[in-house]
Amino acid sequence: MNELGQVVNLEGLLRSVPDRPGAMWARGTLPSGPGVAIVGTRRCTAYGRAVATALGRAVAASGRLVVSGLARGIDAAAHRGTVEVAGIGYAVLGSGIDVLYPPENRELADRLICAGGGLLSEYPPGTPPAAFRFPARNRIIAGLSAAVVVVEAPVAGGALITARLALEQGKEVLAVPGDIDRPTSMGCNLLIRDGAHPVLSPSDLLETLEFLMGPAPRGGSGTAGLPETATLDDILAGSERPPGEILADLARAELAGKGTLERGQFSRRPG
């Protein structure tokens, strides 16, 4: 794929966005349908980063598309969870598609593309990142998603802008609750107070998404026939299935309490 990408029309997917762009720039594949946005503050806590990674992993492993903004903090953590299970994710940029910001997330962007996802921007190549462009791109994140999950967010910030835009577009908003005296949880707690569905765990999120969006594209845990313990290398080498499918199965098994995937080794729980 050319570094400058290609011009595409996503008006069909963005029909909920009143001021949707007539054309966008894209690298990688195009979304096949609505996804799940996972967003939050750049200045997240270690807890928020871990939760975002777990949620991104769970949503991607279920076969749903993960949408975010590739920003530092929660966005990048959600995308990392996505690529960990070879899931499909899309990053909407507040700059030209050839101007990755922040630059340290370039490798993560490449992994999204290699896994079958892509990068999207309404700004032409060469457009530098600017503060006013990021709130504008949030309407695209909301537009590409059936639901928006806010993991950590202060009272003022881009994540709450995305949540507000999602509500205006008729989308569902979910939020992860946090300590009442933690600044990065205040925005989420206020969203829940005002009617957002609380997200209490990755499995809780998947159940809610199934209610909102219908059955997930992938099902089952795929652990039948595995030994009690096995290294990830041995599992991949011993199967003819695509690695992404195997990793997704193992991630779902972990979420279902049927095993643990840690330090390159999967341990299956009997039963």
Describe this protein with a few key phrases.
alpha/beta, 37% helix, 12 strands, globular, 271 residues
Précis, in short:
By secondary structure, this protein is of the alpha/beta class.
Task: Give the topology, please.
Layout: E1 6-8, E2 24-28, E3 35-39, H1 46-61, E4 66-68, H2 74-84, E5 89-92, H3 106-114, E6 118-121, H4 133-143, E7 145-150, H5 158-168, E8 172-175, H6 183-193, E9 197-198, H7 202-213, E10 229-231, H8 232-237, H9 243-255, E11 259-262, E12 265-268
Parallel strand pairs: 3-4, 3-7, 4-5, 5-6, 7-8, 8-9
Antiparallel strand pairs: 1-2, 2-6, 10-12, 11-12
Helix pairs in contact: 1-2, 1-7, 1-9, 4-5
Helix residue percentage:
25-40%
Tell me the radius of gyration: 18 Å
Secondary-structure element sequence? Answer: EEEHEHEHEHEHEHEHEHHEE
The number of helices is 9
Spatial order of the strands forming the largest sheet: 1-2-6-5-4-3-7-8-9
- As a percent range, the share of strand residues is 15-25%
Largest sheet: 9 strands, mixed
Poorly predicted parts: none
What is the mean predicted local confidence, pLDDT?
A: 88
Helix/strand-derived class?
A: alpha/beta
